[in-house]
Specification:
Helix content is 39%, strand content 19%. The strands form 2 sheets. A 5-stranded mixed sheet has the order 6-5-7-4-8, with helices on both faces. Strands 1, 2, 3 and 9 form a 4-stranded antiparallel sheet that branches. The chain is globular.
């Protein structure tokens, strides 16, 4: 998402006929990220943020940027699905739609597991590495990145199940239709030109390709001028 925002900044500079556009980065957490937008400390939230109707009461969203689904990162030899984690501790990032999805899924399935919240994904990974939790619940693309940062990545694996669907977009100030249009125009050009593919490959590795559903998302979201 950060690379995508850098590409957007270049497109915005072109729209404004500027030689360049300097981006100032503002650090946020899962708890205060929307406050950064509503309090005008930041103009664009460049992270994997799920679109929800309740969030649209606080902020606006760009056209979609990604489609993901929640899953489980587990230690080798651990239970392979959510039902087998009954009575176990499951970690999740606090204050996210992923936490809400986990709690709702457990409740609906009648699974009694202990939900342990983490302040950051790094903290959640550390708990999993140290055996303090049996699984870490999160968006699958994020979990794949966490494996690379593990103390022992060979001992972790991603479970097969998709437990939710998470459409991502970039959050921006509510009511600023001109800025939203400029961002959407930039994204549409990035999608239609195929630049999104090179951004994707740099992010996930040269051998990684967008899934068919993601390619369809970019095709639909590449709005004509």
């Amino acid at each position: 998402m950060v690379d995508l925002c850098r590409a957007i900044a270049k497109k915005l500079a072109e729209q404004l006929n500027l030689p360049s556009l300097n981006a100032a980065y503002v650090s946020v957490t899962a708890g205060d990220r929307f406050d950064a937008i509503t309090q005008q400390r930041a103009d664009l939230l460049c992270e994997p943020t799920s679109i929800t109707l309740s969030r649209r009461q606080q902020v606006d969203f760009s056209i979609p940027t990604f489609l993901d689904g929640a899953g489980l990162l587990v230690r080798a030899g651990s239970p392979k699905n959510l039902r087998d984690l009954a009575g176990k501790k499951i970690g999740v990032l606090a204050g996210t739609t992923t936490e809400e999805a986990l709690r709702n899924t457990l409740k609906e399935a009648g699974i009694n597991s202990d939900v342990v919240t983490a302040k950051t994904h790094g903290e959640g990974l550390a708990m999993l590495d140290d055996g303090k939790i049996s699984a870490y619940f999160g968006d699958r693309s994020i979990l794949l990145f966490l494996v690379r940062d593990s103390k022992a990545p060979e001992k972790l694996r991603l479970a097969d199940d998709y437990l939710s669907v998470e459409p991502y977009a970039l959050a921006l100030p509510r009511g600023d239709s001109d800025f939203r249009l400029a961002v959407d125009r930039a994204l549409s050009h990035i999608y239609r030109s195929g630049e999104i593919v090179s951004i994707f490959e740099r992010t996930f590795g040269g051998k990684a390709k967008p899934s068919q559903i993601l390619q369809t998302l970019y095709l639909i979201s590449g709005l004509p001028d």
